[in-house]
Known about the structure:
Oligomer: single chain
Radius of gyration: 18 Å
Largest sheet: none
Helix content: over 70%
Amino acid sequence: xxxxxxxxxxxxxxxxxxxxxxxxxxxxxxxxxxxxxxxxxxxxxxxxxxxxxxxxxxxxxxxxxxxxxxxxxxxxxxxxxxxxxxxxxxxxxxx
Length: 95
């Protein structure tokens, strides 16, 4: 992955993470401390399940690169900053 692409990906990820942080800061706005603590606990408990969405988005992007653009897995690996076998595993939903 070229430095420009890595910088672009980092900037995009930072923007999304800033949005996630802003959304989580919404917990601070809950006036009742007990409700705020319970809500934060619910978010913490459910957070691992939300990780699947990022995995799905990554898999869809790799599928597009392979199926729509016709790129092979070594090329995809280079584009996304990994090796060909990991790119293949992402495409297959194994990683």
